[in-house]
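Here is a typical protein record:
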Amino acid sequence: MTTAFAPPSLSTTLDLQPQAPNGAEPPRERLAVDLRLVRRKAGASAPSWNAGLSAGRSAQVILSRDFSCALLTHNGDPLTHSELGNSGLSIRTAWDLAASHLLSRHSFSEGTEFLVRDAGVRFSHSTLSGVEVSFKHAPATAWLAHPVTFSVLHQHFQKLLRPTQGLIYATTNYLDLFVFDAHPHEFSHALGNAAGEIFPIVHSLGFPLSR
């Protein structure tokens, strides 16, 4: 379902209620955990961090050769292994609970809420069909940091955009998120000269990969 949403260029879309990862309930522990997508350096055994995160301090889950998920407090501070241990949570449990919490914060009786607007608002020169995605309580790319949330997002935009070329996700800063119906070569040609950098990402069995 799509309804009008302020500002006028945004709309709210609702999808069917997803299942929490591994049946996890939204976290009730004192230690609340958020997800943050971060990019890894090629060939690195540990992730390199953007947005001021320190690899030496932050507990993280490697998602693919290209990306990791940093585990953060709700204040945006990196969580350490010792903090997780003191809370009685393993990294895997904290990761799953954070994904469940992300889903619950954006879900209602009708389903999950996605805020979207035409990607042309940001990329007026582009002829690609796509949308910019936003969420009220988290950076949009947080949804790419767990296979359950990324799959919910991917299935939704398969239905919404009905792609003929395939879905390409893109970000300019690893916080904002755009979804395009485009072949990788078409995407590169159409947005290769965009002001500033834009990083294409594809969905692979629930995990993010660079294109």
Notes: The radius of gyration is 17 Å. The first helix runs from residue 81 to 87.
